[in-house]
Each structure stands twice: as C-alpha cells, then as structure tokens.
Amino acid sequence: MDIKKLQKIVVDALEDIKAKDIEVLNTSKLTSMFDFMIIASGDSSRHVKSLARNVYDKVKEAEGQVIGIEGEETGEWVLVDLADIVVHVMQPTIRAHYNLEELWQTVPKRGKKSVDK
C-alpha cells in the first residue's frame, strides 16, 4: 500500500472518532525502522483504546498490513505498528510526559545546547 494512502487512512480513522492534536512526523531521515510517526490524544483510556482499534480496523479493511498493537490493556498509551508508520495514541498526561514530538523532531530547537564542564 502506498504510504501516503496509508497515512490518510490512519488520520481519517483518528478524526472519525474525535482524536485530539493529531501530529504526523516524518522520521525517514532519523531511522530506517519506519518512515512516519503519527501521534494523537484521547480523552480517556476507553477513548484511547477506541482510537487505536479504529486505526487497526480501517487499515485492515483497506487490506493494509498491521504488524501489531500494544498497550490496549491499560489504554494510557496504545501503539499500532503498521511497518512504515507507527501510530501512538495517548492520554494527554502521558503524551506530555514522554513528549515524543520533541524527541523525534528533525531540527533541534535553538537554545538547547549541551555544555561540557
């Protein structure tokens, strides 16, 4: 499946059931493991689980490949592995704590230089 089509399926699946703060990060220059990371928030554990399950179902319906799904037990952070795209659905406090957007950014933010002592 074309990666742009897969990306659209994922974002549409998240939007269908009201995911919040959907971010698509191009990680192709940072790792060879996957090309894109999509991060979204859900309001509760039930919402997070539903969002991840909807992504899983929509990709399967489109005959896309789903490698696996992790974290459905607690629903704080559910990861859906689609090979070329990794989807993280998180509750807002978990998302703020791990701050994947900053961790996986391609250009370092100014003013955050390390200092050798």
Automatic annotation (TrEMBL):
GO terms, molecular function = ribosomal large subunit binding
Q: Which domain of life is it from?
A: Bacteria
The record, for NCBIfam families, names:
rsfS_iojap_ybeB (TIGR00090)
Looking at the keywords, is tRNA processing present? no
Q: How does it assemble?
A: Interacts with ribosomal protein uL14 (rplN).
Q: Does the keyword Secreted apply?
A: no
Which family is this sequence assigned to?
Belongs to the Iojap/RsfS family.
Name the predominant localization. cytoplasm
GO biological process per UniProt: cytosolic ribosome assembly; negative regulation of ribosome biogenesis; negative regulation of translation
GO CC terms of this entry: cytoplasm
Location(s) in or outside the cell: Cytoplasm
As for what it does, the entry says: Functions as a ribosomal silencing factor. Interacts with ribosomal protein uL14 (rplN), blocking formation of intersubunit bridge B8. Prevents association of the 30S and 50S ribosomal subunits and the formation of functional ribosomes, thus repressing translation.
Which UniProt keywords are listed? Cytoplasm, Repressor, Translation regulation
Species assigned in the record: Rugosibacter aromaticivorans
Q: What is this protein called?
A: Ribosomal silencing factor RsfS
